[in-house]
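To: structure desk
From: M.T.
Subject: fold request, one chain
Message: Could you run this one when you get a chance? Sequence is below, nothing fancy, just the single chain.
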Amino acid sequence: MKSLVITYVNSLGAAGPKQGERVLAPLRALGTVLIDLSGVVQWTEAQQFFDADYPRGGRYHWKSAHLSGLGDDAVDVLLDMTSRRPSTAATLDIWFNGGAISDVPATATPISTRAFPVMIGIEANWTDPAADRVNREWSQEVAAALKPYSAGGAYLNFDDLTDPDAARLAHGKNYDRLVAVQRSFDPHNVFRSRRGATG
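Reply: Done. Structure tokens follow.
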């Protein structure tokens, strides 16, 4: 049986339908379009678009890597690791950032990773508890393989909750300032979170 590689492109913009069509036109011209779900949707609908892909009770171990670019060597790593994923539900998602998000200084908000043009979402997704170890190891192996191309930092939605330094890594140089704010407004840590900057 011959394997088939399918690329799924997801985008979200607020500039209006005409601008959206201009942005999507070159992507549609790259190859055979199997399905096109693009269109105007409500914000709440966009927020729920992937809910069915991550059902309650599923098993998930996510990580992220910010890259300064997407060169051939990094692409080779992604292709190799995709071919070795232990679950067909696992994905390596390429997020292209930049634009308005990078216009805001890294220290202006808690999000310190605004300047990185590419983020890789490493999503180990599976259902069988017996496969926990192999799937977790795969996501860690992907992160390690991407490390030579990484610009540092982490994305809060994809951080490793088992890593005690995940919040510091995600907040970068904003971490100490956020700890001071948290201690000032919530000295008893009532609003604690495993992703929070609590010092």
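Reply (cont.): The chain has a mean pLDDT of 86. Let me know if you need anything else for the meeting.
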